Amino acid sequence: MVCVFGYEDVGDLPPVSLDLKLKPGSCCCFILSKVAGGLPIPIWLDDKYNIPPLFNIETLKIVAPNSIIVTAVALIEVLMTVKLVDEVSR
Predict the structure, then answer these.
(1) Nearest CA among 22, 64, 66 for reference residue 2
(2) Can you tell me the distance from the alpha carbon of 53 to that of 46, in angstroms, rounded to the nearest whole number?
(3) CA 62 vs CA 1, 39, 51, 58: distances in Å
(4) Confidence grade of residue 29 (pLDDT, cut at 50, 70, 90)
(5) How many domains does the chain have?
(6) What does the CA dihedral 72, 73, 75, 77 come to, rounded to 10 degrees?
(7) Residue 7 neighbours by CB under 8 Å, 6+ apart
(8) CA–CA dist 29, 6 (Å, integer)
(9) Whole-angstrom Cα distance, residue 6 to residue 39?
(10) What's the pTM?
């Protein structure tokens, strides 16, 4: 059994030729529709949103201390992991 579902506005799509060799009792369904639209716009380039500038002194003053702390914690974790792996592999 072959079921083909379509929408009314797919008249400009090329005709579909189906040459299916289905086993008895099997079912195959298709849904025909159009795909429209474009590529997404990054949020910082979209005029609908009011986003503050990414690179200025005020933003850097807020972000820099936190990023330095997170970087230090990550470095300590990596060094502890390397030390542990070195001790286990001996």
Answers:
(1) 22
(2) 13
(3) 63, 33, 16, 7
(4) low
(5) 1
(6) 160
(7) 32, 33, 34
(8) 11
(9) 25
(10) 0.42
Enter the tokens of residue 15. 């005709």
* Coil vs helix vs strand at 81: helix
Contacts of 33 (CB under 8 A, 6+ apart): 6, 7, 10
b/e for 53-80, b at 16 or more Cβ within 10 A?
Answer: eeeeeeeeeeeeeeeeeeeeeeeeeeee
pLDDT band at 1 (very low <50, low <70, confident <90, very high): very low
Full residue range of the structural domain in which residue 25 is found: 2-88
| CB environment 3-12: b (16+ within 10 A), e (fewer) | eeeeeeeeee
Report whether 15 contacts 43 (CB < 8 A): no
Separation of alpha carbons 81 and 84, rounded Å: 5
